[in-house]
Amino acid sequence: MLYFENDYCEGAHPAILQKLMETNFEKVPGYGTDPYCASAKEKICAACRCPEADVTFISGGTQTNAIVIASMLHRWEGVVAAATGHVNGHEAGAIEFTGHKVMGLPHKNGKLDAATVRNFCATFYADSNHDHMVFPGMVYLSHPTEYGTLYTKAELEALHAVCQEYKMPLFVDGARLGYGLAADGTDVTLPDLAKWADVFYIGGTKVGALCGEAVVFPHGAPAHFMTMVKQQGALLAKGRLLGLQFDVLFTDGLYEKISRNAITTANALKKGLAAKGYQFFMDSPTNQLFIVFPNEQLAALEGKAKFGFWEKYDDAHTVMRIATSWATKMEEIEQLLELL
Amino acid sequence: MLYFENDYCEGAHPAILQKLMETNFEKVPGYGTDPYCASAKEKICAACRCPEADVTFISGGTQTNAIVIASMLHRWEGVVAAATGHVNGHEAGAIEFTGHKVMGLPHKNGKLDAATVRNFCATFYADSNHDHMVFPGMVYLSHPTEYGTLYTKAELEALHAVCQEYKMPLFVDGARLGYGLAADGTDVTLPDLAKWADVFYIGGTKVGALCGEAVVFPHGAPAHFMTMVKQQGALLAKGRLLGLQFDVLFTDGLYEKISRNAITTANALKKGLAAKGYQFFMDSPTNQLFIVFPNEQLAALEGKAKFGFWEKYDDAHTVMRIATSWATKMEEIEQLLELL
Amino acid sequence: MLYFENDYCEGAHPAILQKLMETNFEKVPGYGTDPYCASAKEKICAACRCPEADVTFISGGTQTNAIVIASMLHRWEGVVAAATGHVNGHEAGAIEFTGHKVMGLPHKNGKLDAATVRNFCATFYADSNHDHMVFPGMVYLSHPTEYGTLYTKAELEALHAVCQEYKMPLFVDGARLGYGLAADGTDVTLPDLAKWADVFYIGGTKVGALCGEAVVFPHGAPAHFMTMVKQQGALLAKGRLLGLQFDVLFTDGLYEKISRNAITTANALKKGLAAKGYQFFMDSPTNQLFIVFPNEQLAALEGKAKFGFWEKYDDAHTVMRIATSWATKMEEIEQLLELL
Amino acid sequence: MLYFENDYCEGAHPAILQKLMETNFEKVPGYGTDPYCASAKEKICAACRCPEADVTFISGGTQTNAIVIASMLHRWEGVVAAATGHVNGHEAGAIEFTGHKVMGLPHKNGKLDAATVRNFCATFYADSNHDHMVFPGMVYLSHPTEYGTLYTKAELEALHAVCQEYKMPLFVDGARLGYGLAADGTDVTLPDLAKWADVFYIGGTKVGALCGEAVVFPHGAPAHFMTMVKQQGALLAKGRLLGLQFDVLFTDGLYEKISRNAITTANALKKGLAAKGYQFFMDSPTNQLFIVFPNEQLAALEGKAKFGFWEKYDDAHTVMRIATSWATKMEEIEQLLELL
């Protein structure tokens, strides 16, 4: 069975497991105060060229989104996101559970643009009844987006500008950030994110870790952030588990290196599928391909290859997501291309 | 100054004040257990032809929406509403504050239709990831809608059917219900609402009361509803204030009679404006007219007539809402028409 | 039937109803922006000798407590209160519903003392794990307390000092404030409250109004307080109803005058009961008496006099609360004393 | 440095790391639907002799408490706990953040007894105002308690009985359950917990895992539990990480075996300290010892041994917690005894 359903189907990069083994019986303090967390933070700050950043490790993406958003919004504010944003549609109402509205705006291939946000805010403040409404309090992006698309540096800068104008922090969900940074043609780097975002996270779960996301606040975390992390249940007693993984991932460029593998294999697959005449539902430069398959073909593939359901295309066709990852081997791509 | 900004600018129908005076020194028990609440409930049940209904009085509309919705949804559910619904845009996030998502769907003149809701639910349940999403748990309508439009009996029945199909209670916000029931050409009556809705409320604040909405649960209220009302801060110690007002409004058809006045005056105004060639932004059969004015004319009207801002039409024009009410006098209409 | 069950069994002071009648057809703007609210605020500021105070009107006590507390606490903070405080035991979890812990401390006759609060805070901050705990973020008192007892000026000053020391606002629930201010022997005045509290409210519901509490922030309200009031469902469209009542109550010392009536009648009753040898469960200087009755006597009184159940005293006796109010007549006291 | 500060200072049992290595590149589905979760569930059901139990894995204790409690309480209910319970004091208000009150009752050495709970509930329901109060909706225990003490089977049975009587589920927090089950003299087994509790969890984080708690619902989980877990941010994409660890821990009695190690080492330490005349703050039969130290001695120990601060005893003495774990070696005990 060729498994391409998602990018979290394997365990962790072997260097992580190796390091877990080596350090297993060291006795370290809990709750993120251990030396591995400290070392990982230092390395992440260096990679972001932002020595004064605050870095916190949280075990998963939905949790990170809910914690970051709830800790940065005021009571009267909601979070602005693309209507297709993960926080709007695929987190079981985790944001609303903390009392905040997600304000879904129109998108282009999963991306929010600065003009859309500016227009939304301008209309809001021009409405004389806006004190009876939810204030736009923060902008949420993901990079890559739900559709695997990427922002350019200029787009991030423009979004940053509108956020500054309306005093909203800019939050970038980087659950798949590695794959965004490693994509061909992108001009966005970690230091760019640290420059234009008020908070972002570097995804581990989908990029080589067993679990864990590294939240970076370039200008410092909100007061009492740790207590809020605890209040939302996310403060692991053995914080070392998260710190150590990021320490390994940010040693000797491992994070970049393994992220690149997902891109290389995705590119090979894309080329192969294009050559075979497959229809791409949209163009995605990262590790997720969205392909329109005849339903009959999908039925025939059952038991042989596994993709992720994306959406119905028409009565006879379905859009499927094929994901590569840090762990995908080129021979798996070859086998898949043979099969298709 | 001719004041047509909204339908809550006056106090209460004089019969209410009269009754408050007469009964002022009677000593009655608190928290809605007094004889006026009991009498009002009985009269409302009779008017709804629904003797077994549960009726609760709450002081305002936003509070009622937040209480009803939060008491009927499960934790994993959100409320489906027209994107223009009051709960989605104009209640400062009161629903999200209770932990629930408002799922805004496309509308036609403020109305939600059964096919849109069915399609939304069918797509939701067809998505194999729906356990990671917010479940549609309730449908919210208002009658009249934000745009003063009305559902037909057939439309309500169709919405009821889709709600039954997907096991969602149907909730009708009747903040301006009197004006809906009294409109020309409507075929929807109170007993119809009691038949097709699982919960609805009869607006008092905008229809002759100082404050108060009567929430009707035709099939009985949720368990411990009173404790939830208290928990959301809405249980008035002097519940008599709300009960007595509805007791008066539901005596000798007063609610209907005064609601009709808003329609008669709105109709006269509509006729007059049409004759003068004014542009109607949309056709609204109830007590709110939406008229496109040149900005210059609005400037000239300042200090002479007051309308409600609705939205910008274009750079030179603005849509304004002109509202009549139970208290509007025909001579005010005449004066306004002279002025325009 | 002699009704002494509570102090909210009558309607409103007749001057309020009179004013409602007189102003009924004036057309005024909504949501608390009307001239009656403005006038009432001005009069309350004057009475508090605090011209720069912010005043907001909210319809009931539980709602006011929930709104004030939730608007002033940070996410990581709870509210410190006497274990017997209304917010801790009798509001159906309204505070917790907004996400905050009520931290109940030991009390003396319903009163919290400064040393208890200081000790609690000192212990909290001395605990090296306090970042894993709920921070004490505000102190809640009621004046009079649940037991009708009163703070002295010196006690309030001491509580203010500990609040300053630990950067906690001091909140005084004045649901029955009039009766506290009018009590014999108290040295606490409205300007004292404005001096020592960061926020307090002047109860209307139990002191002559149909509904309504006036929240006073001597140093200004929290940012966006009005939007938070709306978000918790408490912004009445016809704000005039609340403003007008307080405007009347704060005209010509009416609030003081009618508050004093409750004290005069309570004192007469107290004297009479003492003369007859009744056992006082505790000494309360305001409008509530707590008397230990043999259960047999209570059975005999049924249908003749109505008191409020307070608590079981022993198998043969029950503590009952007898409440007077602004509306109690001296002849009712005489009749009750005859009966007992 | 001899490190005895807590029982989560090491990594995981080597067999877990070994298995992580072996299975690392297997591609398995996400969100707890993998074969390791399935296998672990089966083994846990067998160990509990409760084949129909529902088992869910969650990464940490506070999160588990918040999720279980919020998923089982109704809106109008709170959770009854010992005042010293972890949920009441040490989780930064995580329960209140979900909208529920923690009702702290008096305890004996950290234990809640059935009579206290019954009396609390009886008083609650006897109060005619209880609809204005938070209903007791669930009972929370921990086994071992915060003080390392244990319930007997008879005590659990009695608590179960009062829970049944008042229709409250009984929840047992087993963050250190292994150490409770392995203690000398206990008569409580896993099948007993499955019999008397409605939900409990088997702690992994403190008993040999990197992270993870196994929540067991002997009579089935609440409807849509998985969606609620997601909504609270706790659904790990790589659920295999949790499942695999419990699969290893419940293979060949590993969980019991390693739990016993903590007891054996704690017992040796206890014996040694008693022989040396140390003062025990309380008697704890599990892996935590609470010892009263002179402050001078603690100062002298700095840099040589690390214990956990428990509380101030008097001006010259401090209570310290010394914790052993699954990983403590007997020679560390010997070294510590030599030092003390």
TrEMBL record, chains A, B, C, D:
Its cofactor is pyridoxal 5'-phosphate. Keywords: Pyridoxal phosphate. Pfam families: Beta_elim_lyase (PF01212). InterPro entries: ArAA_b-elim_lyase/Thr_aldolase (IPR001597), PyrdxlP-dep_Trfase (IPR015424), PyrdxlP-dep_Trfase_major (IPR015421), PyrdxlP-dep_Trfase_small (IPR015422). GO terms for molecular function: lyase activity. Residues 16-244 form the Aromatic amino acid beta-eliminating lyase/threonine aldolase domain. The keyword Zinc does not apply. Transmembrane segments: none annotated. One of its GO terms (biological process) is amino acid metabolic process. Belongs to the threonine aldolase family. PANTHER family: L-THREONINE ALDOLASE-RELATED, LOW SPECIFICITY L-THREONINE ALDOLASE. This is Low specificity L-threonine aldolase. It comes from Faecalibacterium prausnitzii.
